[in-house]
């Protein structure tokens, strides 16, 4: 995933101002990473009661049924994790300072 050069379409002070050149720099996973463990559902008389990880089970399970809902989910090495915004003077800010890149930036 390449670095994207853009120009700010509107101000977001103190981070950048309209017309300023910025870069969106992706952060990628360095190794295969577990994102979510297996997910299970707890049912009683075929009625869903609770969602949980298997390790959360405690107490009396009489009359309850546990069903696996989803497998483990992994992010492969090299896939997108997050990004940072770098302004013209080299300061870097988290992607969370803007809600949507399309609302704030235009590619150049």
What does this structure look like?
The protein folds into two domains: 70 residues, no CATH class; 34 residues, no CATH class. Helix content is 4%, strand content 47%. A five-stranded antiparallel β-sheet has the order 9-8-2-1-10. It is elongated and about 65 Å long.
Secondary structure blueprint with pairings:
Elements: E1 4-8, E2 21-28, E3 33-36, E4 39-44, E5 47-52, E6 65-70, E7 73-75, E8 80-86, E9 92-94, H1 101-104, E10 105-107
Antiparallel strand pairs: 1-2, 1-10, 2-8, 3-7, 4-5, 4-6, 8-9
Task: Give a quick set of tags describing it.
108 residues; mainly beta; 2 domains; 5-stranded antiparallel β-sheet; 3-stranded antiparallel β-sheet; 1 helix; 47% strand
- The quaternary structure here is single chain
Whole-number total of structural domains: 2
Helix content: under 10%
N- to C-terminal distance: 16 Å
Task: Put the structure in a nutshell.
The chain is mainly beta and 108 residues long. Helices cover 4% and strands 47% of the residues. It folds into two domains: 70 residues, no CATH class; 34 residues, no CATH class.
């Amino acid at each position: 995933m390449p670095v994207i050069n853009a120009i700010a379409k509107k101000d977001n002070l103190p981070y950048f101002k309209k017309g300023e050149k910025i870069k969106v720099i992706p952060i990628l996973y360095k190794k295969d990473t577990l994102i979510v463990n297996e997910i299970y559902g707890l049912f009683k008389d075929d009625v869903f009661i609770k969602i949980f990880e298997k390790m959360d089970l405690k107490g009396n399970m009489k009359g309850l049924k546990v069903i696996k809902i989803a497998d483990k989910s992994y992010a492969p090495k090299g896939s997108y994790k997050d990004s940072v915004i770098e302004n013209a003077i080299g300061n870097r800010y988290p992607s969370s300072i803007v809600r949507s890149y399309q609302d704030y930036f235009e590619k150049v």
